Amino acid sequence: MKASPRAEAARLERLADEELMAHVDRKDPHAFEVLYDRHGGAAYSLAYRIVGDRNAAEDVAQEAFLSIWRSNARFDRARGSVRSWVLSVVRNRAIDALRRGGGGAPKLDHDDDAVLEARPGEELTEEEALRRETSRELRGALDSLPEDQSQVIQLAYFGGFSHSEIAEMLSMPLGTVKGRMRLGLEKIRAQIAESITPDGVLETI
Amino acid sequence: MSERPDNDAAGAAGDSVVHGERWNDDLAAYALDALAGEERRIVAEHLEGCEPCRERLQWMLPAVDVLPATVPQRQPAPALKARIMDVVEHEAEPVAEPSRGRPRGLFAGLSLRPALAGIGVFLLIAAAVTGYVLRDGGEEPSSFDAVYTATAEKPASGAHGKLMVDGDAGMLHVADLPPTGDGQVYQAWIQDKGSAGGSVHASSVFVVSEQGVGDVAIPHGLSQARRVMITREPKGGSRHPSENSLLTADME
């Protein structure tokens, strides 16, 4: 007997991301909708952080998810979690959009974002509230890095700049830029050690 | 992999420390996607042959993967999901389902596609089956539930047609329809059974040959239909008929 649509939706929602991807690969739109529901918010947030504009961020998120749907981007279990993979696709699209638009260096502070996040009266699901709280904690970890290390990491990841572009921008030797990247990543890695599975994958945050 | 891998051991005796110093900074830049061109290629090639450096990179990657989570979290507009899902549902392959007794014969499969399938899909369906169904009055497949005659609202026009129904789907073959003007197409409409004349739904768009011959697939909606009508519409089709029916197949 075939399950009712509601039961089928409930079943898909209970699947782990990796199991869900098998259904997405088979072009199941319901599975894809669950994938979007889980990661669409994080994807849009990342795109917005990079391109800095609501409409452009929506375009990026749409391009990225349709690329995933059409299997132009393939999930590689060896690379990490589904969420990390989805967000890496979004990041690549957003950086492309930034370069097409001739965008300059991204903003490096979050004051306006902090105000936006604190906006009262907005209804949040428990999961969204948790995601925002986690984001605040992790942002604190990033902000706790020495400014010079945080700066080069953010310019590379959110700005899409190469280490040589960053060296030129900040008027410092190439080796110094790469050294600061390493030190910064090592410190972040130490702070999130408890969220990393034994096989080295970041648990979904 | 909670312990930091020591890739200093990768080099030959005496230069192991040099190995780590040589590559660790590059691996961090590589993990952040901050190497370009030749430098990126060199590191990628080195990784292929250096297990300790691969482990070191794997150890470092979660620090990069966590960066998106440091971003202030926002909610996208619901319209974004609607736009994405519109495309996805349009492009979705029909999911194989156990037979429910209904789809069979020529149109099995056509009627499984969700109602969200767009006009472009209808055109493709029409094109795909045109050569199979009828060719200028050729033989009909025998697996239809019913066949109805389509007649012109103005008999003097000479237009006529035949609607072949298979479950909820069907195929309308038309002949002697006048050529459409530039920027126009023909469009099929389904009028439901029911009180007050029944509501009218847009279906497929199509064009006819110079001889006024054409075929249009109607993927769904016929099981509750009273009649199928044809009008001329602007290219791309319309939501509502913009003129009286030129050709009508009554199904009652």
Q: Would you give an account of this structure?
A:
The complex is a heterodimer of chains A (205) and B (252). With 205 residues, chain A is an all-alpha fold. Chain A has two domains: 103 residues, RNA polymerase sigma factor, region 2, helix turn helix motif (Rna Polymerase Sigma Factor, Chain: A); 96 residues, Orthogonal Bundle (Arc Repressor Mutant, subunit A). Chain A contains ten helices and no strands. In chain A, α2 packs across α3, α4 packs across α5 and α8 packs across α10. Chain A is globular and about 60 Å long. Chain A starts with a helix and ends in a 14-residue tail after the last helix. Chain B has 252 residues and is of the alpha+beta class. The radius of gyration of chain B is 31 Å and the shape is rod-shaped. Chain B starts with 15 loop residues before the first helix and ends with a strand. Chains A and B meet through α3, α4, α5, α6 and α7 of A and α1, α3 and α4 of B.
List keywords for this structure.
heterodimer; A: 205 residues; mainly alpha; Rna Polymerase Sigma Factor, Chain: A; Arc Repressor Mutant, subunit A; 2 domains; 0% strand; B: 252 residues; alpha+beta; Immunoglobulin-like; eight-stranded antiparallel beta sheet; 5 helices; 8 strands; 29% helix
Produce the secondary structure layout.
The complex is a heterodimer of chains A (205) and B (252).
Chain A: H1 5-14, H2 17-25, H3 29-51, H4 54-69, H5 82-100, H6 111-117, H7 126-143, H8 147-157, H9 163-170, H10 174-191
Chain B: H1 16-31, H2 37-49, H3 51-65, H4 78-91, H5 119-133, E1 146-152, E2 160-166, E3 169-175, E4 184-192, E5 200-206, E6 214-218, E7 225-234, E8 247-250
Antiparallel strand pairs in B: 1-2, 1-8, 2-3, 3-6, 4-5, 4-7, 7-8
Helix pairs in contact in B: 1-3
